[in-house]
Every structure is written in C-alpha cells, then in structure tokens.
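ok so I'm stuck.
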Amino acid sequence: MSAGPAQLSFPFEHDPGFLVSTFEKASGRSVMLVLTDNSTSMLSIRNKGAVSCVRLHRMFLCVDEATLKEIGLFIKHGSGSMTRFRAFLNKMSSVVRRRPQRYFPVRTRGKYYELYAIFERLNEEYFDSRLTSAITWGTGSSRKAVRKRTLGSYSNHSNIIRINPVLDKNEVPDYYIEFVVYHEMLHAAIGIGEKDGRRSVHTRAFRERERLFKYYDKAMRWEQTII
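replied:
not stuck anymore, here's the structure
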C-alpha cells in the first residue's frame, strides 16, 4: 500500500477563510472551499445553484492576493487567462512533491504529428489551459489495438496521456488525432464517475462534453473506416 500524499510546508500561509472571502468578493458567489494535496488537479470548480464548490491545492494558501482575485474572477466567469495562476504553478512546480514514479520516456514528436502542440492548442480552446497532464506517443502500434479502439489512454496515477503511434500516419486526418487527444484530455479533466454504483469512465457528462469537440461528427464517421 502506498503512503499518503507528501505534506508541504510554506514560508507563510493565509487563513482558509481569507481565501473564501476573497473568492466570494471577486466572484459575487457563495464559495465552499476544500483544500487538497492533489497535484494532478490543482483547481476544480463545480457550481451547485448559487454555491461554487471549489477544490484547490493547499499551496495556494501562500499565494499573493492578486492571484486569489484572479481565481475569484475565474469562478465568476468560468473562463479567463489565469496568467498569475499559471505563473504561480510554474514557480511552485519544484516544491510540489509527488509519489515516486517509474521513469518513462516522453516522446511527443512523431513522423507526422507533434502531440505537445496538439495538447496545448486543445488545452487552451476547451480547458482554459488548466490541464497539467504529460502526453507521449505509446509503444504499441498493433492493428489489434485499433480494432479494440485502444487508440489512447490516460493514467490518473501518473497524469500521463498516451497515444497509440498507429495514428502517426499521413492518411490519418488531423481532426481525428485531435479528437483522440481531446477524448483522453476529458478523462484527465473529469476523472472517474459512478453509474449504478459502479465506476464509470464514460459517464453521461463525459459523453456530452465529448460531443462539444467541433469535429466530433466528422471524426466519428472517419473512425468507422478503421474499425
């Protein structure tokens, strides 16, 4: 059994109530705040009526007030540049300790497609640049995998997206590989839900957001040609 999340110590900390007060003033909404040590999801927001349920990594207890106000405006509008937020994440990336993980090679550049560029573009367009996942080409490339539709995978434990290199071909349209990457990014954004008391990765909410991909219908039609 693995140990729990490593605890962090910071030079100073705001009181959690100060964060709630700052968020509520900036957003004009009631805020319920949960502080976490989850380093794969630094910020998540779920609106329930007039209340915004905010899960935030506790390292933000030591961030400046201007960044907290930026988060509050993000809570209000549901979007935004989050420039200060991302700058703080970059600054603190060496401080946030994760569980030791097995080394894995990251290979984003293929013969025809560069995965990092695709990820960054989709992250900005659909996820407000909030996802922090790594992305890489996988090692398998069998046609059997294609028949099983295992064209991509996401690991919640390592926060890594792997794309089957069988897609790195000239005949694979760019909108389709973008859809596969988007699909796996949704797993990173939504996580694992439940259906009838069982774990479900493709919930109704997942399928609804999947259809928001602008080339969804076109991608589905092309997918039928390779299955």
